[in-house]
Design brief:
Length: 288
């Protein structure tokens, strides 16, 4: 046999040997090794992500916005890469804790970016710009003083003048109006990213993290809501009546939706001001 043929044969046999070694069915040990490396890689990256986002949140400039967008794009790309590599272990029977780690890796991105690098970059830049606009937003009070988000939260937690509360509430929501188009695009890109990971959309990805199929989780939420619904509407009616009593029916009608700006919470997330002042202690005493 000629030397050239021998070299060719040797290369072919070596290639086949390498392929045989790398294409064996994955084992639990392989999965454990992969997850250990993935966790280490993501742990190191998370420090960069949190540092960049903290600086951006506290010192909002074009530069910090660009830095945050870049590191978030890197985090999204690395996570998507690891999720893709993890598909090798699909169908492998493994311990429950290890299996859950693979699921959580797949679900770890709140807003998954598309596989397409250009679209992923667009999405992270939009996200950073929305964070900037939200953090920089201000509302000018009747006295001419402009309030940032921290001052607005304090103002609405302490002020009880309904006209001033309404003015600040309306003014702040006007800050968000210009973000609508960008946010809609962000949602569109995030949904595409979720589809690239094998989910119908981002909402389905979110609902997949509760140890049950997403549709089953939605049904469970509906079932639990029906259980607490009567209590919620009773409390809602009581709070609305007390607000109407305090501010008058012209400010807070005794029926219909409750005015969110009167609740003392900037985002209307809780009725904390109402409960601290006088309402819920009375309810508690009446129930004992």
């Amino acid at each position: 046999m000629k030397p050239a043929c021998l070299v060719t044969l040797f290369c072919f046999v070596t290639a086949m040997s390498v392929q045989a070694k790398t294409s064996h069915p994955p084992t639990v040990s392989d999965a454990e090794a992969f997850m250990k490396k993935a966790e280490a890689r993501l742990a190191g990256l998370s420090v960069k992500v949190n540092q960049a986002n903290w600086v951006h949140a506290n010192f909002i400039t074009d530069d910090t916005e660009a830095l945050a967008a870049a590191v978030n794009e890197e985090n999204t790309a690395v996570t998507a890469e690891l999720v893709e590599q993890a598909k090798r272990f699909d169908g492998l029977k493994m311990p429950a804790d290890l299996s859950r780690k693979f699921l959580l890796l797949k679900l770890s991105l709140t807003a998954p970016g598309p596989h397409d690098p250009a679209l992923r970059k667009e999405m992270t830049e939009i996200a950073a710009s929305l964070e900037s606009d939200y953090g920089k937003g201000k509302v000018c009070h009747m006295d001419g003083k402009c309030l940032d988000i921290t001052a607005i939260e304090k103002f609405m937690g302490e002020n009880r003048d309904p006209s001033e509360l309404k003015a600040i509430w309306v003014g702040w929501h006007a800050v968000g109006a210009p973000m609508r188009k960008r946010y809609a695009r962000f949602v569109e890109l995030s949904n595409q990213g979720a589809r690239d990971l094998g989910f119908k959309d981002t909402g389905t990805l979110w609902r997949a993290g509760y140890d049950m199929p997403p549709d089953q989780f939605s049904a469970e939420v509906d079932r639990l809501w029906e259980q607490v619904r009567p209590l919620y509407f009773s409390l809602y009616t009581f709070v609305r009546a007390r607000l109407s009593q305090k501010y008058g029916p012209q400010v807070m009608p005794p029926d219909g939706p409750m005015r969110a700006d009167l609740l003392g919470n900037f985002w209307a997330q809780t009725w904390a001001m109402f409960s601290r002042c006088w309402a819920f202690p009375k309810i508690a005493r009446a129930m004992t």
